[in-house]
Specification:
binds magnesium ion; 33% helix; 6-stranded antiparallel β-sheet; Carbamate kinase; alpha/beta; 2 domains; VC0802-like; 11 helices; binds aspartic acid; 18 strands; 401 residues; globular
Amino acid sequence: MARVLQKYGGTSLQSTERIRLIADRAIREQENGSQLVIVVSAMGDTTNQLVQLASEVSSCTAGRELDLLLSTGEQISSSLLALAIQERGREAIALTGAQAGLETEEVHGDARITDVNTAKIREELNAGKIVLVAGFQGCAKNQEICTLGRGGSDTTAAALAAALQADRCEIFTDVDGVYSADPRYVLGARKHERLNYTHLLTLAETGAEVVHPRAVAYAQDHQIPLVVRSSFHEQEGTKIQHDSGIAFPVVGVTFQKGLSYFQWRGKIEEEELLAGLADVNSLVGNVQVSNGHTDLIIKEEHGSEMSAWLNENKHKLGINSIQHAEGMTAVHLVFADLDEKRRLAPLLNEKELVPSGDVYRINCAPDAWSVVVPEEYAVEVAQRIHDWFMGLESKKASIAL
Ligand code: ASP
Ligand code: MG
């Protein structure tokens, strides 16, 4: 009997009407002879609303009560879906992350999964039930509920798929699959029928929001076939496996918004620089040193702290001429075949990519070529790069990011 893990995102569960449709779909899958575990996100915009509610009474941004609060969003979805399935005369059981055996480290707001005890889920599956699991949460050894960071339901799904040795893990979302660029912004973006894990991991790590990078890494480590598909129709989505080749010259173009760019004259040792970064995760790509200048890209929320630190320490560090630009966006081009990088040459005299000349090359991943530009030019740059590689006549991008 096939064991299938499905995950439904917030837009797929936006209303009780959508939940009823998903209940029908789940029953059809079970009738096909599958054992079915479904991981759910919170309904629609619930998590943002809960964050907003908390901010109205507290300045706390992470902690046990906040995790307790946020974890309820997914519990609402799993309970409602279980009720809807039961209403159709089938057996179903809803579980919190803790009840489903997801053990996490003791970190509030961004915990990693440390272990999965699948005994309870296996018992319920063997009793013929459809098992609904609240995503995005687990329980630490000290019995505290911890959440997995925004987008963490994907990680719950991949971790459970791995632990249950599922035959496949299907991520249901509001798009038809993984595209060569976000079709909301880039005209002519094409859907991939197949991708390999490394392709999808680089897309996810460079800003494609379609699947969380930690989920892709889990699937890759455990060789779980992933499928990204729409919950709004029955069409096949994108299949992600270990050895899939792709049909297009490039894997895709992605964006990362909200970045701060720094440049200064002189070089700072990496360890020294890390001391100035409030949060090491803030660093985007590698620090670049060329022609006596250092370039640094970090997330915008840490831009002012970084700027203050550089200015305070510039004499000690032996650097000067510090420049700082906010509101920058990275545009990444992810290659399937590194030889394709050579084709960039005629197009990408990067100084000509945007009219203002504010364009900086950065290194983010070995299989990607990346530039940082002011946000207002990002879509245009992405469109030009995408058209060039897909062999399309250049279209004028009209939508702002
Ligand atoms: N509901 C959580 C979020 O909005 C987790 C998830 O959807 O994956 O980030
Ligand atoms: Mg998501």
